[in-house]
From TrEMBL:
The lineage of its organism: Bacteria, Pseudomonadati, Pseudomonadota, Betaproteobacteria, Neisseriales. It holds the Pfam family UvrD_C. Residues 14-141, 145-286 form the UvrD-like helicase C-terminal domain. The keyword Nucleotide-binding applies. InterPro entries: DNA_helicase_UvrD-like_C, DNA_helicase_UvrD/REP, P-loop_NTPase. The keyword Nucleotide-binding applies. This is DNA 3'-5' helicase II. Keywords: ATP-binding, Helicase, Hydrolase, Nucleotide-binding.
Length: 447
């Protein structure tokens, strides 16, 4: 074969990094340099040729006189419980975010805070909630509601194609501009405003503004656009584990300490993945005396020591109840999806529940009470009317331990829509209820 095709060529390894600064690449390479036989060890990643003439710290070499674009390790006290350490490292991350924002206009969506496990992220979520900072919690993606089932999306579709279109009524048509304006004019909250604004832009990018489009075509376009996604990335800080961030990149990445206990190569690679998500700045938190990976970083890595006092409010847990079970984690769904639409002894109770849920908006406060099967479930109410209930098999030890449930705040986090035509509901939902709202509560649990 070689006589026909010529000599066998040496493999061309793809070792250019088109994402990160030289400082980030050097630190990441140092982390895995002892992993014998691995491709990236034998052929280290290097910065792409177009960037080789730039400073090692990229644009932050000049922009940040204190840090000068170096990888920063923030060393925190190693004393205290895991919860206290998580509380304090959240403060360290928040302080560095504020410091960077004082130097440049940084969008929250360009920031990622990564961890080994989800538990370390809870104080960061609390900080975002308490400071009205938008964020995206990666773990909610697989447990959250599908975009096509959200109340906001369904309402938009129904304005295109009403449920009860009269026989013989001519199908509506919309110009591209009219359709885009319909999308932008939806009465929705902040995250949805951004999402619909982007949806309108994408439609006009693909289609002409003055052409008339049948409503059915536009409906199909919307369903194809959202696909089977379960959550929209908001314009907020990405909070997720190193596993959840594969394939993504962010200008500013923070990697939390905690849970990096195994010296296994798979853990080493995972920490490497977290580091290499960074484009412009990389900040690593250390609150253990001997961090398995940080000690391997090059000398030019900057180390600073910080100290903070525990803030009790950051120990507050913000927990959105999940709709779906997780077989890998052996965790059942937390919400009884059909509760609000099931027949009751008193028909007026059913109507009251549906009407009460219809009036709710994202962020509205709910009350919590025990109810359901053997009084072991939890119901979420507005004006004394239950609009959501936990699933029978779901466990809530943090609620069971509370004697006074009024200490637990609850608010409506999101809304979905379910249809009786789905075969799983056909036998349990009365025929007169063809669709119903689904209220998804968020628990706010003080520690």
């Amino acid at each position: 074969m070689s006589k026909i095709w010529g000599p066998v060529q040496q493999p061309d390894f793809l070792t250019f990094n088109y994402r990160s600064t030289q400082n980030i690449i050097t630190a990441a390479n140092r982390l895995i340099q002892d992993m014998g036989g691995r491709l990236k060890t034998l052929h280290p990643i290097v910065i792409n040729p177009e960037k080789q003439h730039r400073p090692n710290g990229g644009i932050w070499s000049e922009r940040d006189g204190e840090r000068q674009g170096r990888v920063r390790v923030v060393k925190l006290p190693s004393q205290g419980s895991r919860q206290q350490k998580n509380n304090i490292q959240a403060q360290a991350v928040a302080a560095e975010i504020r410091r960077l924002q004082a130097l440049a206009d940084i969008e929250y969506r360009s920031i990622a805070v990564l961890s080994r496990n989800n538990g370390e992220l809870k104080p960061m979520q609390a900080w975002c909630e308490q400071n009205n900072i938008p964020y995206f919690l990666a773990k909610d993606r697989k447990h959250g509601i599908r975009l096509r089932h959200t109340r906001e999306f369904v309402r938009l579709v129904e304005q295109l194609v009403p449920d009860k279109q009269q026989e013989g009524q001519k199908e509506k048509t919309f110009t591209g501009n009219e359709f885009a304006e319909l999308i932008r004019s939806q009465d929705v909250g902040g995250m949805w405003q951004d999402y619909f604004r982007q949806t309108a832009q994408d439609f006009l990018r693909e289609n002409t503004a003055d052409t008339g489009y049948p409503a059915a075509f536009l409906k199909n376009w919307l369903y194809e656009y959202v696909g089977n996604e379960s959550e929209s990335r908001s314009d907020g800080i990405f909070l997720g584990t190193a596993h959840s961030v594969k394939g993504l990149e962010f200008k500013h990445v923070f990697v939390l300490d905690g849970g990096w206990n195994s010296a296994d190569e798979s853990e080493q690679r995972l920490y490497y993945v977290a580091m290499t998500r960074a484009i412009e700045t990389l900040t690593l938190i250390q609150n253990t005396p001997q961090h398995l990976w940080i000690g391997r970083l090059p000398e030019e890595t900057e180390c600073v020591e910080r100290s903070y006092t525990v803030l009790p409010e950051l120990d507050t847990e913000y927990r959105t109840l999940s709709l779906y079970s997780d077989k890998k984690e052996n965790r059942p769904a937390e919400l009884d999806i059909g509760f609000i639409a099931r027949e009751t002894r008193n028909a007026s109770d059913l109507i009251s529940r549906l009407e009460a849920a219809k009036k709710l908006k994202v962020g509205d406060e709910l009350t919590i009470r025990r109810g359901g099967w053997q009084n072991k479930q939890y119901e979420f109410c507005t004006d004394g009317i239950a609009v959501a209930r936990t699933a029978k098999n779901a466990a809530f030890p943090e609620l069971d331990a509370v004697s006074d449930l009024s200490a637990i705040r609850v608010r409506a986090a999101a809304f979905g829509v379910r249809y009786r035509e789905d075969e799983q509901y056909t036998d349990n939902i009365p025929k007169k209820i063809q669709k119903w709202p689904l209220v998804i509560p968020m628990l706010i649990i003080p520690k």
